[in-house]
Amino acid sequence: MGFLKRHPLIIIVLSLLLAIQVFSLSTDEKRLPVPFSKFILNLTYYPQKFTYEVTDSIINVWQNYIYLLDVRNENKKLIVENARLRHENMQLLEAGLQNDRLRKLLDFKEYSQSRTLTANVIAGSPSIIRTEVVIIDKGTSDGLSEGMPIATFEGIVGRVYLVGDRDAEVMLITDPLSAVDAYIHRTRARGIVKGTGFGCVMEYIDSKTDLSVGDKVISSGKDGFFPKGVLIGTVEEIERKGNFLSAKVSPNVDLNSLEEVLVILDPSEKMALNE
Known about the structure:
The chain has helices spanning 2-6, 8-25, 34-112, and strands at residues 116-123, 133-136, 149-152, 155-163, 168-172, 179-184, 190-195, 200-206, 216-219, 231-241, 244-251, 260-264. By secondary structure, it is an alpha+beta fold. The protein has a 6-stranded antiparallel β-barrel. Strands 6-7-8-11-10-9 form a 6-stranded antiparallel barrel. Strand 7 and strand 8 (200-206) form a beta hairpin.
């Protein structure tokens, strides 16, 4: 009796189900009064409707869950595939850019009439004190020696400063120790292009020289390192210093994004201006 008092709803549901079973098992419809049959039918509507809706909801939730799992898995596959395609596209673009650079280097080699060697820039400066240097993957085993000029198809990069067996340190023209004997291409006025640590400046230009912003600066070939006529940079600013003019020069080569360079093995007076 205690159970019945505590769970009256369960007793009602069980009684209802029993009544449904009795109603459904009846084989002689005439024995059951029509009003009683309708009463049982009406009485069982709500439990059956409730059971149907709960079951249908559970089925829908489960199906949606399975669908969402499939969608999530498909999205993961698409994300991976998209990343793979972007990676392949980037590789193709990079290969195209590299081929273009190498083609221009090849053209420069043929035009320079000098023996050259292609090298890859493999690292920046190993020192936090001297930052205007890069490391290339060629050394004495490849015929390099200190002082050899380094260039790209765009112009002068620097010169070999220290050589190892298989690699070498290249001092950029922006290094404070760098100095290149140079001409103003338009007027042939002479001066020295020095590194400032963050750029270049051309000093000791005769004060009477016709000098303008935008003038091209080329190597003179008189310093014993760099061949004649290779582009160094462009005049950006002009300043008078006593009896001389000083010009800020913007290097023609983007020294912060070097990848392939040419080592000029035997500098020649026949080098031509690369504009």
